[in-house]
Write a structure and sequence with these properties.
Blueprint lengths: L1 H5 L1 H12 L18 E10 L5 E12 L3 E6 L12 E7 L5 E9 L9 E11 L5 E12 L4 E13 L2
Antiparallel strand pairs: 1-2, 1-8, 2-3, 3-4, 4-5, 5-6, 6-7, 7-8
Length: 162
């Protein structure tokens, strides 16, 4: 008891620490702390909203801290330089999914697209270790006066870029 007599505070602290329960093991990956934040490799499947697939193509999406999103796509239906990078916002929904909306300019009319904008609204479900997600999206096309031209649906799967 010489230690506790000479160092009463240290002895009391050691006793308290020894009575604490052990820390639980961490089952999640370090990525889980990031949530949606970071870059993702995405595979998009576009449909007519009635189940007819119109194409599959890759995209890259970057979710940034503070709630902004940047995306670019390699949809072969667009002519070279016809579609700009998409910019938008993302947020956590009450049900644990993520919502996101991004807008890109359709810079000139060609092929099946008219000059104007493309607006994509997403509902994203992130897996438990934040390494993958699934998306259900609504795609709207507008002319330069913001009159609705067309609507499509999309699903997507994504993996975190390392």
């Amino acid at each position: 008891m010489l230690i506790s007599a000479r160092f009463p505070i240290a002895a009391a602290l050691a006793l308290v620490v020894s009575m604490l329960p052990p820390s639980p093991a961490r089952a999640q990956s370090p990525q889980a702390a990031l949530g949606l934040v970071g870059p993702w490799s995405v595979t998009v499947t576009l449909s007519d909203c009635n189940g007819t697939v119109k194409g599959t193509f890759p995209s890259i999406v970057m979710f940034s801290r503070g709630g902004t999103v940047t995306e670019t796509t390699f949809n072969p239906a667009f002519q070279p330089g016809q579609r700009s990078t998409g910019l938008g916002v993302w947020y956590l929904n009450d049900d644990g999914t993520y919502g996101s909306t991004d807008v890109a300019f359709i810079q000139y009319s060609a092929g099946m697209f008219s000059a104007g904008t493309q607006e994509i609204t997403h509902t994203i479900s992130l897996n438990s270790d934040a390494s993958k997600w699934n998306d259900e999206a609504s795609v709207q096309f507008y002319d330069v006066a913001h009159n609705k031209l067309a609507h499509a649906c999309a699903t997507a799967t994504a993996v975190r870029l390392q």
